[in-house]
């Protein structure tokens, strides 16, 4: 940032950017709208370019505002964390923590972790960013990442790992329809669609079954899971995640997923956030939850 910018100006900018309105930001900040508009105009003059595109209803970020927002938002979070760190211990765990995770982990693991956090820290908000794309922790796109492959980047710390061997699961009705002594070739398989063919599960299925063709495929994990619950076929799932009540209708199938894939779930955080009370609270809950489910495999074969 350019020399001379001060935190108070940045705080005003972040408020307008988040609310998309000068009037709404002024109300939130307890300022008059003319005062806020003047302060932002002075900041824009200092930068030499506009931060906002003013409209009759609200405002949008101008190119300079888009460039400034990530760093400004991080400054706002650091200021909040500094205040929290100086508070009494019982008041420190508050704010928002954003966790990025693949859709399956977000659906089955993070929702259970959120329940435990809510009971212990009601002032803490957990935001799950469910995506098949890697978000950049270094750029502040998320605070914590759950990943099925460890990412080696400067500044990233792997603080934990949940081990859970993948297995084939299906509905009880589907399990009952399998022939005695069923093998992998007997399974109607549900997996990611062709444009996600680079995902580990798809690669392993193609390795185990040359010429493999799925019975059902989707680019959405929830759709795959719905097909599995409906009885369309078998799906590779982490056994440890079967503790989620939503998956109680699925059973482990009597066919081995003969893969070297160990089922590792890596917990990563950027070093600049490690040690903050709200971050450590979530990491502790993830560690506790992971230890509790690591050996869980779900209901046995039907």
From TrEMBL:
GO biological process assignments: DNA-templated transcription
Keyword Transcription: yes
Alphabetized GO MF terms: DNA-binding transcription factor activity; sequence-specific DNA binding
Matching InterPro entries: LysR-type_TF_proteobact-type, LysR_HTH_N, LysR_subst-bd, WH-like_DNA-bd_sf, WH_DNA-bd_sf
DNA-binding recorded as keyword: yes
Domain HTH lysR-type: 5-62
SUPFAM superfamilies (UniProt xref): Periplasmic binding protein-like II (SSF53850), Winged helix' DNA-binding domain (SSF46785)
UniProt keyword terms in alphabetical order: DNA-binding, Transcription, Transcription regulation
Family stated for the protein in its record: Belongs to the LysR transcriptional regulatory family.
Family annotation (PANTHER family): HTH-TYPE TRANSCRIPTIONAL REGULATOR, TRANSCRIPTIONAL REGULATORY PROTEIN
Stated name of the protein: Transcriptional regulator, LysR family
Organism the protein comes from: Shewanella amazonensis (strain ATCC BAA-1098 / SB2B)
Lineage: Bacteria, Pseudomonadati, Pseudomonadota, Gammaproteobacteria, Alteromonadales
């Amino acid at each position: 940032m350019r020399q001379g910018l001060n935190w108070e100006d940045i705080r005003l900018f972040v408020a307008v950017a988040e609310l998309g309105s000068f009037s709404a930001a002024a109300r939130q900040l307890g300022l008059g709208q003319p005062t806020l508009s003047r302060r932002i105009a002075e900041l824009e003059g200092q930068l030499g370019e506009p931060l906002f595109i003013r409209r009759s209803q609200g405002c949008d970020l101008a190119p300079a505002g888009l460039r400034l927002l990530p760093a400004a938002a991080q400054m706002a979070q650091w200021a909040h964390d500094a205040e929290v760190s100086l508070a009494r211990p019982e008041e420190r765990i508050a704010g928002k923590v954003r966790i990025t995770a693949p859709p399956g982990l977000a659906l089955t693991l993070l929702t259970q972790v959120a329940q435990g956090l809510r009971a212990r820290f009601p002032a803490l908000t957990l935001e799950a960013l469910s995506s098949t794309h890697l978000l950049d922790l270094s750029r502040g796109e998320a605070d914590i990442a759950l990943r099925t492959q460890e990412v080696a980047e400067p500044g990233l710390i792997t603080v934990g790992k949940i081990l859970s061997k993948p297995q084939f699961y299906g509905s009880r009705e589907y399990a009952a329809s399998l022939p005695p002594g069923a093998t992998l070739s007997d399974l109607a398989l549900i997996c990611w669609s062709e444009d996600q063919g680079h995902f580990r599960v798809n690669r392993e299925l193609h390795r185990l079954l040359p010429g493999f063709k799925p019975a059902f495929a989707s680019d959405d994990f929830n759709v795959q899971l719905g097909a599995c619950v409906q009885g369309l076929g078998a799906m590779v799932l982490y056994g440890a995640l079967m503790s989620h009540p939503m998956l109680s209708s699925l059973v482990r199938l009597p066919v081995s997923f003969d893969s070297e894939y160990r089922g590792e779930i890596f917990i990563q955080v950027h070093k600049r956030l490690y040690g903050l009370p709200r971050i450590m609270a979530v990491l502790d809950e993830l560690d506790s939850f992971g230890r509790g489910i690591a050996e869980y495999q779900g209901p046995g074969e039907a």
